[in-house]
């Protein structure tokens, strides 16, 4: 539950779907969650992202703890046409 509180903005925590997301995370096997988190952490997307030449639309919420605006801007800057 603490993970979700840290990841989601207060406005979303008041949303009726917030408990659904909490329950989904709580039902996820720990081993699976750890492996997915490790895959995200260990994946270097800079090379593959910098090869993209198609136009992109990059957006993020200003209260997004998982993908803060600076990270999204940095990723968008890797794409030639974004």
Can you walk through the features of this model?
With 82 residues, this protein is mainly α. Helices cover 59% and strands 0% of the residues. The protein is built from six helices and no strands. The protein has helices spanning 2-7, 10-13, 18-27, 30-42, 46-50, 69-78. The longest helix is centred in the middle third of the chain and has 13 residues, at 30-42. The N and C termini lie far apart (35 Å).
Q: What is the total number of structural domains?
A: 2
Q: What is the count of DSSP helices, taking H or I runs of 4+ residues?
A: 6
Principal-axes geometry comes out as globular
Overall residue-averaged pLDDT value? 85
Radius of gyration: 16 Å
| Approximate helicity band | 55-70%
The percent range for strand residues is under 5%
In N-to-C order, the SSE pattern is HHHHHH
End-to-end C-alpha gap: 35 Å
């Amino acid at each position: 539950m603490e993970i979700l509180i840290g990841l989601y903005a207060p406005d979303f925590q008041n949303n009726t779907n917030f408990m659904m997301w909490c329950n989904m995370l709580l039902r996820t096997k720990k081993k699976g969650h750890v492996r997915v988190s490790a895959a995200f952490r260990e994946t270097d997307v800079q090379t593959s992202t910098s090869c993209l030449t198609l136009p992109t639309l990059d957006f993020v919420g200003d209260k997004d703890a998982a993908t803060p605006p600076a990270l999204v801007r940095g990723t968008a800057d890797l794409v030639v046409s974004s």
